[in-house]
Amino acid sequence: VMAAVQTAKVTLRDGRRFPPAVLAAIALAWVATIAAQSSGEAILLNHGRLIEGVHPFLKPPPLWVALPLFLVAWQVMVVAMMLPSSLPMVRLFRVASIRQPRPAIVQGAFLAGYLAVWGGFGALAFVQDIGIHRLVDHTPWLALHPWIIGGGALALAGAFQFSGLKERCLSECRHPGAFLLQHYRRGVSGAFRLGRRHGVFCLGCCWALMLVVFAAGVANLWWMAVLGCLMFYEKVGRAGDVVAPVAGAVLLALAVLVLAHPVWLPPLLGG
Hints:
Blueprint: H1 2-11, H2 20-39, H3 47-52, H4 63-81, H5 87-96, H6 103-137, H7 140-144, H8 147-160, H9 164-174, H10 176-183, H11 188-216, H12 221-236, H13 240-260, H14 267-270
Protein backbone atom coordinates (compact mmCIF):
# COMPACT_ATOMS: atom_id res chain seq x y z
CA VAL A 1 0.00 0.00 0.00
CA MET A 2 2.80 2.39 0.95
CA ALA A 3 4.52 1.92 -2.40
CA ALA A 4 1.29 2.45 -4.31
CA VAL A 5 0.49 5.63 -2.42
CA GLN A 6 4.01 7.01 -2.82
CA THR A 7 3.90 6.30 -6.55
CA ALA A 8 0.54 8.01 -6.77
CA LYS A 9 1.82 11.08 -4.93
CA VAL A 10 4.62 11.50 -7.42
CA THR A 11 2.20 11.44 -10.34
CA LEU A 12 -0.34 13.79 -8.79
CA ARG A 13 1.35 16.72 -10.50
CA ASP A 14 0.64 15.21 -13.89
CA GLY A 15 -2.72 16.55 -15.07
CA ARG A 16 -2.98 13.70 -17.56
CA ARG A 17 -3.53 11.32 -14.65
CA PHE A 18 -7.06 12.56 -14.17
CA PRO A 19 -9.40 9.83 -15.44
CA PRO A 20 -10.78 11.15 -18.75
CA ALA A 21 -14.09 9.38 -18.17
CA VAL A 22 -14.58 11.22 -14.87
CA LEU A 23 -13.76 14.58 -16.41
CA ALA A 24 -16.17 13.83 -19.26
CA ALA A 25 -18.89 12.86 -16.79
CA ILE A 26 -18.49 16.15 -14.92
CA ALA A 27 -18.63 18.13 -18.15
CA LEU A 28 -21.68 16.23 -19.39
CA ALA A 29 -23.43 16.72 -16.05
CA TRP A 30 -23.03 20.49 -16.34
CA VAL A 31 -24.12 20.46 -19.99
CA ALA A 32 -27.21 18.42 -19.11
CA THR A 33 -28.04 20.72 -16.19
CA ILE A 34 -27.67 23.88 -18.25
CA ALA A 35 -29.68 22.39 -21.10
CA ALA A 36 -32.47 21.25 -18.78
CA GLN A 37 -32.62 24.63 -17.08
CA SER A 38 -32.54 26.56 -20.36
CA SER A 39 -35.26 24.46 -21.96
CA GLY A 40 -37.49 24.46 -18.89
CA GLU A 41 -37.39 20.67 -18.67
CA ALA A 42 -35.63 20.78 -15.29
CA ILE A 43 -38.93 21.60 -13.60
CA LEU A 44 -40.18 18.11 -14.45
CA LEU A 45 -37.60 16.59 -12.08
CA ASN A 46 -37.89 19.20 -9.34
CA HIS A 47 -38.68 17.50 -6.05
CA GLY A 48 -41.49 19.92 -5.22
CA ARG A 49 -43.16 19.34 -8.56
CA LEU A 50 -42.82 15.58 -8.27
CA ILE A 51 -44.46 15.70 -4.84
CA GLU A 52 -47.26 18.12 -5.74
CA GLY A 53 -47.74 17.07 -9.35
CA VAL A 54 -46.81 18.74 -12.64
CA HIS A 55 -47.43 18.17 -16.35
CA PRO A 56 -47.24 15.50 -17.76
CA PHE A 57 -48.49 14.10 -14.43
CA LEU A 58 -52.11 15.11 -13.80
CA LYS A 59 -51.53 14.23 -10.17
CA PRO A 60 -48.41 13.47 -8.12
CA PRO A 61 -46.78 10.27 -9.37
CA PRO A 62 -46.44 7.39 -6.91
CA LEU A 63 -43.32 7.33 -4.78
CA TRP A 64 -41.84 4.43 -6.73
CA VAL A 65 -41.94 6.64 -9.85
CA ALA A 66 -41.16 10.03 -8.31
CA LEU A 67 -38.15 8.93 -6.27
CA PRO A 68 -36.18 7.35 -9.16
CA LEU A 69 -36.94 10.36 -11.37
CA PHE A 70 -35.67 12.69 -8.68
CA LEU A 71 -32.57 10.58 -8.04
CA VAL A 72 -31.61 10.81 -11.71
CA ALA A 73 -31.54 14.59 -11.46
CA TRP A 74 -29.91 14.45 -8.03
CA GLN A 75 -27.04 12.23 -9.13
CA VAL A 76 -26.41 14.42 -12.17
CA MET A 77 -26.17 17.36 -9.78
CA VAL A 78 -23.83 15.41 -7.47
CA VAL A 79 -21.53 14.59 -10.38
CA ALA A 80 -21.53 18.25 -11.45
CA MET A 81 -21.04 19.76 -7.99
CA MET A 82 -19.38 17.21 -5.72
CA LEU A 83 -17.18 15.10 -7.97
CA PRO A 84 -14.88 18.02 -8.92
CA SER A 85 -13.94 18.51 -5.26
CA SER A 86 -13.11 14.79 -5.02
CA LEU A 87 -10.84 14.77 -8.08
CA PRO A 88 -7.63 14.68 -6.01
CA MET A 89 -8.87 11.52 -4.29
CA VAL A 90 -10.12 10.01 -7.56
CA ARG A 91 -6.81 10.71 -9.25
CA LEU A 92 -4.78 9.30 -6.38
CA PHE A 93 -6.90 6.15 -6.24
CA ARG A 94 -6.61 5.69 -10.00
CA VAL A 95 -2.84 5.65 -9.84
CA ALA A 96 -2.74 3.46 -6.73
CA SER A 97 -5.06 0.87 -8.27
CA ILE A 98 -3.70 0.87 -11.82
CA ARG A 99 -1.79 -2.40 -11.29
CA GLN A 100 -4.76 -4.27 -9.88
CA PRO A 101 -6.57 -6.82 -12.04
CA ARG A 102 -9.39 -5.13 -13.98
CA PRO A 103 -8.43 -1.60 -12.88
CA ALA A 104 -11.33 0.02 -14.73
CA ILE A 105 -13.83 -2.08 -12.77
CA VAL A 106 -12.02 -1.36 -9.52
CA GLN A 107 -12.09 2.37 -10.20
CA GLY A 108 -15.75 2.15 -11.18
CA ALA A 109 -16.49 0.41 -7.89
CA PHE A 110 -14.83 3.27 -6.01
CA LEU A 111 -17.05 5.81 -7.77
CA ALA A 112 -20.11 3.61 -7.23
CA GLY A 113 -19.46 3.56 -3.50
CA TYR A 114 -19.07 7.33 -3.48
CA LEU A 115 -22.26 7.95 -5.45
CA ALA A 116 -24.20 5.42 -3.36
CA VAL A 117 -23.67 7.57 -0.27
CA TRP A 118 -24.96 10.67 -2.01
CA GLY A 119 -27.83 8.73 -3.55
CA GLY A 120 -28.90 7.56 -0.11
CA PHE A 121 -28.77 11.10 1.21
CA GLY A 122 -30.80 12.34 -1.76
CA ALA A 123 -33.45 9.69 -1.14
CA LEU A 124 -33.69 10.66 2.53
CA ALA A 125 -33.95 14.34 1.62
CA PHE A 126 -36.75 13.58 -0.84
CA VAL A 127 -38.75 11.56 1.68
CA GLN A 128 -38.18 14.26 4.30
CA ASP A 129 -39.45 16.85 1.82
CA ILE A 130 -42.66 14.89 1.42
CA GLY A 131 -43.16 15.31 5.16
CA ILE A 132 -42.49 19.05 4.91
CA HIS A 133 -45.06 19.38 2.11
CA ARG A 134 -47.62 17.55 4.22
CA LEU A 135 -46.82 19.83 7.15
CA VAL A 136 -47.28 22.93 4.99
CA ASP A 137 -50.57 21.57 3.66
CA HIS A 138 -51.88 21.25 7.22
CA THR A 139 -50.36 24.46 8.60
CA PRO A 140 -51.98 27.56 7.07
CA TRP A 141 -49.47 29.94 8.67
CA LEU A 142 -46.53 28.07 7.15
CA ALA A 143 -48.28 27.95 3.79
CA LEU A 144 -48.49 31.75 3.90
CA HIS A 145 -44.82 32.08 4.90
CA PRO A 146 -42.98 29.55 2.69
CA TRP A 147 -39.73 31.51 2.89
CA ILE A 148 -39.36 30.26 6.47
CA ILE A 149 -38.24 26.90 5.09
CA GLY A 150 -35.61 28.41 2.80
CA GLY A 151 -34.40 30.71 5.55
CA GLY A 152 -34.15 27.76 7.91
CA ALA A 153 -32.05 25.83 5.39
CA LEU A 154 -29.69 28.79 5.03
CA ALA A 155 -29.42 29.17 8.81
CA LEU A 156 -28.69 25.46 9.26
CA ALA A 157 -26.01 25.53 6.56
CA GLY A 158 -24.46 28.67 8.00
CA ALA A 159 -24.32 27.32 11.54
CA PHE A 160 -22.88 24.00 10.38
CA GLN A 161 -19.92 25.80 8.79
CA PHE A 162 -18.63 26.45 12.33
CA SER A 163 -19.13 22.91 13.65
CA GLY A 164 -16.45 20.46 14.71
CA LEU A 165 -17.95 17.78 12.48
CA LYS A 166 -17.52 20.03 9.45
CA GLU A 167 -13.89 20.65 10.35
CA ARG A 168 -13.13 16.97 10.93
CA CYS A 169 -14.72 15.81 7.69
CA LEU A 170 -13.00 18.57 5.73
CA SER A 171 -9.69 17.49 7.19
CA GLU A 172 -10.22 13.97 5.86
CA CYS A 173 -11.13 15.30 2.42
CA ARG A 174 -8.17 17.68 2.27
CA HIS A 175 -5.60 14.91 2.76
CA PRO A 176 -6.43 12.17 0.25
CA GLY A 177 -2.95 10.64 0.50
CA ALA A 178 -3.23 9.99 4.21
CA PHE A 179 -6.81 8.79 3.77
CA LEU A 180 -5.80 6.33 1.07
CA LEU A 181 -2.81 5.10 3.05
CA GLN A 182 -5.06 4.28 5.99
CA HIS A 183 -8.04 2.74 4.21
CA TYR A 184 -6.81 1.38 0.86
CA ARG A 185 -7.67 -2.27 0.16
CA ARG A 186 -7.27 -4.22 -3.05
CA GLY A 187 -10.16 -5.66 -5.03
CA VAL A 188 -13.57 -4.51 -6.17
CA SER A 189 -15.18 -4.77 -2.74
CA GLY A 190 -12.29 -2.90 -1.15
CA ALA A 191 -12.64 -0.14 -3.74
CA PHE A 192 -16.38 0.14 -3.14
CA ARG A 193 -15.86 0.39 0.63
CA LEU A 194 -13.16 3.01 0.14
CA GLY A 195 -15.41 5.06 -2.14
CA ARG A 196 -18.23 4.72 0.34
CA ARG A 197 -16.01 5.84 3.21
CA HIS A 198 -14.77 8.81 1.23
CA GLY A 199 -18.37 9.62 0.33
CA VAL A 200 -19.36 9.59 4.00
CA PHE A 201 -16.72 12.20 4.85
CA CYS A 202 -17.64 14.22 1.76
CA LEU A 203 -21.27 14.10 2.83
CA GLY A 204 -20.27 14.95 6.38
CA CYS A 205 -18.74 18.26 5.37
CA CYS A 206 -21.17 19.24 2.60
CA TRP A 207 -24.63 17.88 3.46
CA ALA A 208 -25.93 21.18 4.83
CA LEU A 209 -24.80 23.13 1.77
CA MET A 210 -26.43 20.55 -0.47
CA LEU A 211 -29.66 20.99 1.49
CA VAL A 212 -29.59 24.64 0.43
CA VAL A 213 -29.38 23.52 -3.20
CA PHE A 214 -32.18 21.05 -2.49
CA ALA A 215 -34.35 23.81 -1.02
CA ALA A 216 -33.59 26.11 -3.96
CA GLY A 217 -34.50 23.34 -6.39
CA VAL A 218 -32.42 20.75 -8.20
CA ALA A 219 -30.77 22.26 -11.31
CA ASN A 220 -30.88 25.81 -9.92
CA LEU A 221 -27.78 26.99 -11.75
CA TRP A 222 -27.07 30.03 -9.57
CA TRP A 223 -26.94 28.07 -6.33
CA MET A 224 -25.18 25.13 -7.98
CA ALA A 225 -22.40 27.34 -9.30
CA VAL A 226 -21.88 29.35 -6.11
CA LEU A 227 -22.02 26.46 -3.65
CA GLY A 228 -20.17 24.12 -5.99
CA CYS A 229 -17.26 26.57 -6.13
CA LEU A 230 -17.41 27.01 -2.36
CA MET A 231 -17.28 23.28 -1.64
CA PHE A 232 -14.47 22.82 -4.16
CA TYR A 233 -12.34 25.55 -2.61
CA GLU A 234 -13.03 24.41 0.94
CA LYS A 235 -11.47 21.06 0.08
CA VAL A 236 -8.63 21.94 -2.28
CA GLY A 237 -7.93 25.64 -1.77
CA ARG A 238 -4.99 26.83 0.30
CA ALA A 239 -7.25 29.03 2.41
CA GLY A 240 -10.14 26.59 2.58
CA ASP A 241 -10.09 26.57 6.36
CA VAL A 242 -10.52 30.36 6.32
CA VAL A 243 -13.21 30.40 3.67
CA ALA A 244 -15.46 27.93 5.50
CA PRO A 245 -16.35 30.19 8.47
CA VAL A 246 -16.58 33.24 6.22
CA ALA A 247 -19.10 31.38 4.09
CA GLY A 248 -20.93 30.44 7.28
CA ALA A 249 -21.25 34.08 8.28
CA VAL A 250 -22.55 34.98 4.82
CA LEU A 251 -25.10 32.17 4.90
CA LEU A 252 -26.31 33.23 8.35
CA ALA A 253 -26.67 36.82 7.14
CA LEU A 254 -28.65 35.60 4.14
CA ALA A 255 -30.83 33.53 6.47
CA VAL A 256 -31.66 36.60 8.55
CA LEU A 257 -32.47 38.52 5.39
CA VAL A 258 -34.68 35.77 4.00
CA LEU A 259 -36.51 35.32 7.30
CA ALA A 260 -37.09 39.09 7.50
CA HIS A 261 -38.51 38.81 3.97
CA PRO A 262 -38.36 42.42 2.77
CA VAL A 263 -40.55 43.12 -0.25
CA TRP A 264 -37.55 43.97 -2.44
CA LEU A 265 -35.82 40.61 -1.90
CA PRO A 266 -35.41 38.68 -5.18
CA PRO A 267 -37.43 35.45 -5.47
CA LEU A 268 -34.17 33.52 -5.74
CA LEU A 269 -33.59 34.13 -2.05
CA GLY A 270 -36.95 35.11 -0.74
CA GLY A 271 -39.03 32.15 -1.87
